[in-house]
Structures are given as C-alpha cells and as structure tokens.
Design goal:
Layout (H helix, E strand, L loop, with lengths): L7 E2 L32 H19 L9 H6 L5 H5 L5 H4 L7 H48 L7 E2 L2 H14 L9 H24 L10 H15 L10 H27 L3
Parallel strand pairs: 1-2
Helix pairs in contact: 1-5, 5-6, 5-8, 5-9, 6-7, 6-8, 7-8
C-alpha cells in the first residue's frame, strides 16, 4: 500500500442507477408509530449527531470542508500506523467519527441513518452503539495489520464506513431469523437489499484500487463487514427468547468480541 498525499477515507460512493443505498426502515409491529424520531431510534440519531458535530468542530477550527490535509485529519483523531503503534490506540475509535470532506460524511451518514433505523429495533440502542464501535474498531485493526505487514507507516485513515459495513453485516445475519414477527417474504426482501448494498459498495471499493480518483480503505470495510457477520451469529438464537435472555446474550457476545479485538491488537503490536 503506497503512500499518497491524499488521505485514505472510507467513502461509500452512491450509485446513480444501482441500489447502493440501504432499504428504508420498516415497522416491526402494527402498533408502532410510522414516523421514526429521536425517541424511537436514539442511538442512530446520537451516532449521526456525534459524527456531524465532530465534522462541524473541524470546520470551525479551520479544516477545509472539501480537502482537509492529512495533518489536520491526524490532529482530530484519524488513524496512522506509527502513531497507533507508539501508544495512541484510541485513534482506532476516534477515526470512526472523523471524515475526509463533506461528500464523505454525507454519504456515510445517509447510509448509517438508513441502516441504523433498520437495525436499532433488532439490537436496541446500546446494542447498535456497541456494534458501531466494535465493527469500526475491527475494520481499523485489520487495516492497521496490513499496513504493518506491508511496511506502510504513512497512511492516514478516517471514516464511519467500516462501522456502517459492520451494521450491514450483522443485519444480514439477524434478518435470517424466521421467528421474527415479520412476514418471511418481507424479511427476505430486506435481507436481499442489505446484501446488495454491501456487495455493491465492496465492489466499488475494490474498483478504486485501479483508479486514482479516490483512495478507499478496503481492509477497514472488509474487517467491519466480517466482524458484523460474526457478531450476529450468537445473537440469532436469543432474539425471540425474551428481552432478558437476549440482552444477556448481547452482553456476553460484545464482551467476548472486545476481548478478541484486544488480543488482535496485541498481536499487531508485536508484528513490528
């Protein structure tokens, strides 16, 4: 992976004719309100709000809304292999709230909002937030691992799309549960839409390898997506087993997932 003066953003490119945007949110029971608000999806709006607030904070402190420099991105929390391996591991999380320009944040927030409204009723506010952080962290760790292996110490990465791919990944698994109070035909339609969204954007990311238009961190996308799939597997059996059992399974799953990421990070630190 070669260094470029252009920062490496995780941009989800919108397609003009293909269904690149995730499906609109659905109602999970007839008695639920049709209009989604901050109160019905607090985690989704909170995550979008934090991302937008960070971007606004950057702009108010002199960062270009179109072409921020790598130094500016690093100052506000983007990833960099040398800085992370020297002890600034917090960048693996903060980078998921930093974006490389207005187009970058607009596309990522549109996807996060749609996927969040679809996933929050299945995960709950705490669950959705945990998935965002864990899959964003997983994606950045995988990217860091390949940077270390390829001796790329200069890359700068930022963006929420690793976490967005993670939410898409866990939704693909959760929407395979036949016991959900949703017609199976509707579940299949939603699941197919999320799969198409993930597949199309992964292909777009891979295609940019052969162009110089924009640099996309494909390892962060892939890492977030795969970790999202993995997080969903142990949750499916408890989704309809009652709130208490489901929340207990979430806590165990997320705790184990955090421990495994810590081990992965320790392994990466010893690669150098």
């Amino acid at each position: 992976m070669s260094y470029s003066s252009q920062p490496e953003g995780e941009l989800l490119r919108p397609g003009s004719s293909a269904p690149s945007a995730p499906p609109p949110p659905i109602e999970y029971a007839s008695e639920q309100p049709r209009t989604r608000t901050v109160l019905t999806a607090p985690a989704t709006y909170l995550l979008v709000g934090i991302n937008c607030a960070v971007f606004l904070w950057m702009i108010l402190h002199g960062v270009s809304p179109k072409e921020p420099t790598t130094a500016q991105l690093i100052h506000f929390g983007a990833t960099n292999p040398d800085l992370i391996l020297s002890g600034q591991w917090w960048r693996l999380i903060t980078a998921t709230f930093v974006h490389v320009g207005l187009l970058h944040i607009a596309t990522n927030m549109w996807c996060l909002w749609n996927l969040g409204l679809l996933g929050e009723p299945l995960l709950g506010p705490i669950g959705l937030t945990a998935v965002y952080l864990l899959t964003g962290l997983a994606g950045n760790l995988l990217s860091l691992a390949f940077n270390v292996i390829l001796r790329d110490h200069l890359s700068v990465g930022a963006g929420a799309s690793g976490a967005v791919f993670g939410i898409a990944g866990i939704l693909i698994v959760l929407l395979s549960n036949h016991k959900l109070p949703i017609p199976w035909s509707e579940l299949k339609r939603l699941r197919r839409s999320v799969i198409q969204f993930a597949a199309l954007n992964l292909v777009i990311g891979l295609a940019t390898v052969f162009t110089n238009i924009i640099r996309i961190d494909n390892f962060a996308h892939l890492g977030g997506f795969l970790y999202g799939l993995a997080l969903g597997v142990p949750l499916v059996p408890r989704m309809t087993a009652g709130r208490e059992r489901y929340l207990r399974r979430q806590k165990i799953t997320f705790a184990v997932a955090t421990f495994l990421l810590a081990l992965f990070g320790y392994w990466i630190s010893n690669l150098k």
